[in-house]
Amino acid sequence: MPATPAWPPASTPRLFIDEPLEAGTVITLDGAPANYLANVMRLKASDPVRLFDDRTGEWLATVSDVAKRAITLGIQDKLGEREAVPDLWLLFAPIKKGRIDWLIEKATELGVARLQPVITRRTIVDRLNLDRLRAHAIEAAEQCDRTALPVLEEPVKLETLLRSWDAGRALIFADETGGAPLAQVAKQGPAAILIGPEGGFTDEERGIIAGVAGACPVSLGPRILRADTAAAAAIAVWMAAAGDW
User: Fold this and answer.
1) Which of 73, 91, 127, 244 could covalently link to 61 via disulfide, CB atoms 3.0 to 4.6 Å apart?
2) Residue 242 gets which letter from DSSP?
3) Integer CA distances (angstroms), 147 to 53, 141, 150, 201, in order
4) Model pLDDT for residues 25-46, shown as the tens digit of each residue
5) Is 220 in a helix, a strand, or coil?
6) Main-chain phi, psi angles of 220, to 5 degrees
7) Which fold has domain 14-80?
8) How far apart are alpha carbons 227 and 13 in whole angstroms?
9) What is the C-alpha separation between 136 and 44, in angstroms, rounded?
């Protein structure tokens, strides 16, 4: 007997919808999502679409109508619950466009719960297009079967962030002057990884960070890493050491 084909197929388009989803409801998409489904993917009536909402999980929908500038979907079955996300924050000094886009994508793929831009003394980029960065996070989640999106916060000055730091959350900061190997420090529980700008932290900033309860300087190995590479490497090491991998 031939095997029953998997449903929905692995090639089924997948989209984030920023509203609560439930079986039996009908949604109409316009703009870029409608163009993608109708003109890029060339979907027609009864074709499947996978949807997730960062709230309830992932759902199977089918196309019920394709118009010139809109597409209507009927939500049918729930495919899975919203995934459990480790309580890890990434605190990072903004870097140049292109490299920060890559950082956001990889942090999303790796499962970070919160993304917090931090303005330091040596931060060169102080203006961020958060809508563009969120779009990169959404695209990464769509492509990598994520059902949860990281929270993207407004930029904040380092001193302001640390002034009200919760002592119950470990503060792991990549210190270019050295520290304990990250794999030996990482453990389950609320944590944040702090990555400075490519010029590094000033001595004054390093002293402020070290004075925070629960702060721990760590080394990311013997090689010099760019800020975006350091962030991805640190997240991966923490996830592995904390048991997420």
Assistant:
1) 73
2) T
3) 7, 7, 10, 35
4) 999 999 999 999 998 999 999 9
5) coil
6) -105, 25
7) Ribosomal Protein L25; Chain P (2.40.240)
8) 33
9) 27
